[in-house]
From TrEMBL:
InterPro entries: DUF7352
Native source species: Marinobacter persicus
UniProt-listed Pfam families: DUF7352
Protein's recorded name: DUF7352 domain-containing protein
Domain DUF7352: 1-94
Amino acid sequence: MKTIHKFRLAAGKEPTTLTLREGFRVVRCEYLMPQKAVFLWVQQPLNVSTPLVDRHFRVAMSGEPVPDSFEYLDTALDPFGPEAYHVFEVPEEEMHAAPEEYVEEGEKAPLERTGWRAAQYVF
């Protein structure tokens, strides 16, 4: 047997860690207005002997850079606003990486070179 559970994902730079049954599958992602949060629906086995695994999920706004290793899962839209929330699964090895490891040597401020930083203050 299997079931579907709903999980709230925290907004921000820190990933949300969920303990799920091995063989789980993400089936839906949605922004719920009453809670003003992104939720993930996950199908997983009901068998209690199925091993548990920790998985990490990160919500990123449109235009926000994430490492290439993050796996895109789905997008949740705010039906009454311009926001779009993109959900990524974060690989285990990324959970232990220092933020500097995401940036190659000599690339300490790639967004500043593109003018993005200056543009963010205009709006």
